[in-house]
Design brief:
Elements lengths: L2 E6 L4 H4 L3 E3 L5 E3 L7 E11 L7 E4 L9 E15 L2 E16 L4 E6 H5 L4 E3 L7 H9 L10 E4 L1 H4 L11 E3 H12 L4 E5 L8 E6 L9 E4 L7 E8 L6 E6 L12 E5 L5 E3 L16 E6 L5 H8 L3 E9 L11 E6 L2 E13 L5 E6 L4
Parallel strand pairs: 10-13, 14-21, 16-19
Antiparallel strand pairs: 1-4, 1-6, 2-3, 4-5, 4-22, 5-8, 6-7, 7-8, 9-11, 12-13, 15-20, 16-17, 17-18, 20-23, 21-22, 22-23
Helix pairs in contact: 3-5
């Protein structure tokens, strides 16, 4: 299988942010990107659509340099719902930056979005409110490594309140993004769209799917799908079973002298020790303490997550079924060998061997 690509010079925001044009509404906005400097064919390639986990590899048939932008072209429809009653339709293309390239033109490609947000951090105290607000922090236009035009999101999907109770003063944008997307079960899509009506389109970053209200799809896989299952520890909690919690006094930088203590009983329930009236036989045989500091009052689930057993989810790689194809960001119930897994399609891999391979990540929203 061969795949065509467009090749562009680096989308350098130092230059491209200065290129402006006035649109029909009268406002001045950044111009779109220039036409490609070359078109070629990818050979011997393994290219991931979202790249949340892996970088991609491909051999190019045109001269290229580190920092050049590669647009992988497909003939597939890329319908995206941008409102309950509005869809936009483009051909699916996937955007990368070349991070290494050798003398044979074999290149390492990193997905545009993940490279764009690298190096950024944000004050944790300002990460409050809905998932939409967190998305605006992650994908906002301020100071990216690559040019950023606009971002979109399904406001029904992102209008949920998430509490990021982080202990450090700042958090890396990349870490915040991975946490957000995992909890939303949505991966960011980079696509070309002329949102502002400029002479040329810009790139949009979207938390969007082909339907406004996602319906969970059901699929069954067997050995013909060549599945590979990995267990992923999403919350590694060591062997702690007792929490001493200190919550910062409001409007100060001080913590109280005394902690609020919690443990886990034999049924897996969180127990606040000041309310406990039992004989202790339903509590851990040995107390292993973890001390926690919070700026705001944590939820019970947050405290429980720190002293419960490791939280382990399944990640399944399998070949897409051409008779019932799935796509990135589909909510899916997967049946495999009598076991049910609920989650979403987090990535898709295009290969020169024509194998269309999916990454399913188990999990729940929220």
């Amino acid at each position: 299988m061969l795949a065509e690509y467009n090749l562009y010079d680096n989308f350098n925001p130092n230059i491209m942010e200065q290129k402006k044009e006035q649109v029909s509404s009268g406002i001045v906005v950044p111009s779109g990107y220039d036409i490609p400097k070359a078109r070629g064919v990818l050979i011997d390639f393994e290219c991931f659509q979202t790249g949340f986990e892996y970088t991609s590899k491909a051999t190019l048939t045109t001269n290229a340099e580190v920092g050049d932008i590669v647009e992988l072209l497909t003939t597939e429809d890329n319908s995206l719902a941008i409102s309950p009653n509005t869809k936009i339709s483009n051909k699916l293309s996937v955007w990368y930056i070349i991070t290494t390239i050798d003398e044979t033109n074999k290149a390492t490609l990193q997905n545009y979005f993940w490279y764009m947000i690298e190096g950024g951090s944000f004050p944790t105290k300002q990460i409050i409110g809905t998932a939409q607000q967190a998305w605006s922090i992650i994908a906002g236009t301020s100071r990216k490594q690559l040019m950023h035009w606009e971002q979109m999101a399904n406001w029904d999907e992102t209008n949920i309140t998430l509490k990021f109770n982080m202990k450090a003063d700042t958090v890396e944008i990349k870490k915040l993004a991975k946490d957000l997307f995992s909890r939303l079960q949505l991966e960011p899509i980079t696509f070309s769209y002329n949102l502002q009506g400029t002479k040329r389109p810009g790139l949009q970053q979207g938390l969007l799917t082909d339907e406004w209200k996602r319906q969970r799809k059901i699929t069954m896989i067997d050995d013909n799908s060549d599945p590979a299952i990995e267990k992923v520890v999403v919350a590694e909690r060591s062997n702690y079973n007792y929490a001493k919690v200190f919550i910062k006094v409001p409007n100060t930088d001080h913590y109280p002298t005394n902690s609020i203590d919690y443990t886990i009983n034999n049924s897996g329930d969180l127990v606040k020790m000041s309310n406990y009236t039992g004989n202790g036989l339903d509590l851990p045989e040995q107390r292993i303490i973890k001390t926690l500091f919070y700026d705001e009052v944590p939820t019970d689930s947050q405290i429980k997550s720190e002293i419960a057993q490791d939280s382990i989810l399944s990640k399944i790689y399998f070949n897409n079924n051409p008779l019932y194809p799935l796509q990135v960001n589909d909510l899916v119930k997967v049946w495999y060998k009598g076991t049910e897994y609920n989650g979403h399609i987090a990535d898709r891999c295009f290969t020169s061997s024509r194998i269309d391979r999916l990454t399913f990540m188990e999990g729940n929203r929220g």
